[in-house]
Each structure stands twice: as C-alpha cells, then as structure tokens.
C-alpha cells in the first residue's frame, strides 16, 4: 500500500475528488470538512459521525496532520505564544493577543524569511521554507483547540515570513480560514514588507482581506539600508501600489513603522512620512523597536516615540503606538524560535 494521504493537504475540490475516487457519497466530504475545521479532529477514528467501518476504511488511506505544540508561554500582559513543530520538525510561532472582546492570532507564513530586514530576527534566519496552506490554517485550528471553549476572532498575518512571497499557499489558507473556520475576511489583516507586484495579485486572490504595509522608513536611503526589498521596489512604487489597492468602504491601509533610535525617528522623518502617505486612506501603527542583541539597533526613548506620534497626529494623520506584545516571553517575530 502507498503512503497515507493527509486530508488537510487537500483543497476543497481535491477532497471531493478523493471522496469520489474512494467510492463514497459527496456529503462525506462535507462531514470531513466539518470535523477537521470546526471540531478540530486530528484522528479519523474520533470522527464519531462516521461508522466504525468507514473510519477504519478511511484510516487505511488517509490521516489528519496536526501541529505539535512544543512550548506555550503566557506573558504578564495576557499575550500567549505558541511554538509548534511541523511534520519535518521545522518550528514556527503563533501569538495570541487578547484585547477587549477580540482574540487575535498572529500567524506565520514561512519558516524564516528571505527579505533580510536588518532589525528583524526572522530575517536573520533567511528563508528555510514556505509553509503549505494547511500548515498556515493549522495554526488557527491548533490554537482554537487549545483555548476551547474560546475561539479566535481575528487573524493577523504578521508572524514569521513574508506572506506575499508565498502567495499561492497563503491565499488557499486564507480561503480555508474564512470558508471552513468561519472567520470573516474583514477580521483578517495581511502584512507585507512591500512586494509591489504581488500587492495587486493579493486583491484578486484574497479579496477584502485588510492590508498592512511595513513602511519603517521615510526615505529610500534609510529604507534601502534596513529593508533590502526597497532596492527592488522603492517607496514611490510602493506608495503607488497602495494607492491602487482596492479598499472597501470605511476600510484603511495600515502602515507599520518600527521606530529605531537614531535611524528613522527624527522630526524630519515624521515630516517626510506625512508627505508620503498624503491622500491615502490609512492609519499608522508606530512600533518601538523590540531590539535583539545582534542587530546593534536601539529602541528610541518614550519621549521620542511620543513626539513622533504627536507630529503625525498634528498633521491630521491617525497614528497609534503599538508596543510589541509579550516582551517578557520573547513574543516579537522570531524570538521564541531563535531561543529554542
Ligand atoms: N513580513 C511581513 C510580516 C511579518 S513582520 C512584514 O514585514 O510586514 C511583522 C511586523 O513586525 C512588521 O511590521 C515588521 O516591521 C515588524 N518587526 C520585525 N522585527 C521587529 C522588531 N525587532 N521590533 C519591532 N517590530 C518588528
Ligand atoms: Fe521578513 Fe517581515 Fe522580518 Fe522583513 S520584517 S525580515 S519581511 S518577517
């Protein structure tokens, strides 16, 4: 007998095809989808809606993959961090951020990242591999199972990796998260470092998902230095792509701006930033750098952070300060994996 197939590796069409080839009626596919994505089944033998014979028949051909939880850490601010291992023993992180009535899960799209941003620990790893769609969606399923009876309400794709560099798998994962796991597209935000040609594709492949763009600099000179992707797609092209991005009514683009001491936090930077985003329906999230030892970069003082925010707000922009959550548990991008 050949290798067993992973039911989670199938798209909806592939699962229906599998069921048909197995000589089963079509509604069995719907039952499997319900048990896998809504009841978080990881073992065919537990799908009690199916007869014992059917379960053991399916088990001879197929299995349901699962993420293996390696560590679960809770921060004093309520943030929880999950370190998972994949079937090939690579590891990824997901971070759960409770906030009023919302439970937001920050998920990863790649193991490592090829973009090489200087301030980012994931960037230091380089790209190890893309995640498959089921490995991306599985972060939502696994955490939902771990926090029962609660349920994740919002998704941000801001964990490890550059999602637009893995767009096929990311789009399929987002489809499953909305259609099978039932989280509305309006509650999903994808963050990109600015892969300009893929931004238009995203609007086609995952319509109505919110867009966040990691700007992190107000000039090409600084952005070239801290985000190498800028040498391929400089600020003018990036802002142009943002202007073309289709926004639903009352929707805004989020610009993330990591504030790095002495690098991009001057009053001149604030002034240039205001000019850059002029005319765009947007808000700005200022994220004081969460420094890691190798980067040699510093977090600005609180006074500098507040002054930067004030300059933006005084110019009519919406700007929030977003602390990286869970600093005591190394919740920032890539830090838990790095310490494992
Ligand atoms: N690759 C995508 C999404 C993952 S990074 C992107 O770059 O947008 C998610 C966010 O974390 C980005 O806005 C990035 O600028 C920010 N980030 C990375 N390293 C950080 C650090 N050390 N401190 C604070 N924010 C950081
Ligand atoms: Fe990759 Fe985003 Fe980190 Fe840059 S900031 S290296 S794009 S994960």
Automatic annotation (TrEMBL):
- Domain (Radical SAM core): give its ranges: 99-328
Primary location class:
cytoplasm
Which NCBIfam families does this UniProt record tie to the protein? rRNA_mod_RlmN
PANTHER family according to UniProt: 23S RRNA METHYLTRANSFERASE, RADICAL SAM CORE DOMAIN-CONTAINING PROTEIN
What this protein needs as a cofactor is:
[4Fe-4S] cluster
Any single biological process term in GO: rRNA base methylation
Cited SUPFAM superfamilies: Radical SAM enzymes (SSF102114)
Matching entries from InterPro entries are given as:
Aldolase_TIM, Elp3/MiaA/NifB-like_rSAM, Methyltransferase_A, RlmN_N, RNA_MTrfase_RlmN, rRNA_lsu_MTrfase_RlmN/Cfr, rSAM, rSAM_sf
GO cellular component, as recorded = cytoplasm
Residue numbers annotated as active site: 93, 333
Write down what this protein is called. Answer: Probable dual-specificity RNA methyltransferase RlmN
Listed EC numbers: 2.1.1.192
Localization, per the record, is:
Cytoplasm
What's the stated role of this polypeptide? Specifically methylates position 2 of adenine 2503 in 23S rRNA and position 2 of adenine 37 in tRNAs.
- Tell me what reaction this enzyme catalyses: adenosine(37) in tRNA + 2 reduced [2Fe-2S]-[ferredoxin] + 2 S-adenosyl-L-methionine = 2-methyladenosine(37) in tRNA + 5'-deoxyadenosine + L-methionine + 2 oxidized [2Fe-2S]-[ferredoxin] + S-adenosyl-L-homocysteine; adenosine(2503) in 23S rRNA + 2 reduced [2Fe-2S]-[ferredoxin] + 2 S-adenosyl-L-methionine = 2-methyladenosine(2503) in 23S rRNA + 5'-deoxyadenosine + L-methionine + 2 oxidized [2Fe-2S]-[ferredoxin] + S-adenosyl-L-homocysteine
Asked whether the keyword Protein biosynthesis is assigned, the reply is no
Tell me any Pfam family this protein matches.
RlmN_N
CDD domains reported for this sequence: Radical_SAM
* Binding of [4Fe-4S] cluster, residues: 113, 117, 120
Identify a single GO molecular function assigned to this protein.
rRNA binding
Query: Which keywords does UniProt give here?
Result: 4Fe-4S, Cytoplasm, Disulfide bond, Iron, Iron-sulfur, Metal-binding, Methyltransferase, rRNA processing, S-adenosyl-L-methionine, Transferase, tRNA processing
**Which family is annotated?**
Belongs to the radical SAM superfamily. RlmN family.
| Cofactor binding note | Binds 1 [4Fe-4S] cluster. The cluster is coordinated with 3 cysteines and an exchangeable S-adenosyl-L-methionine.
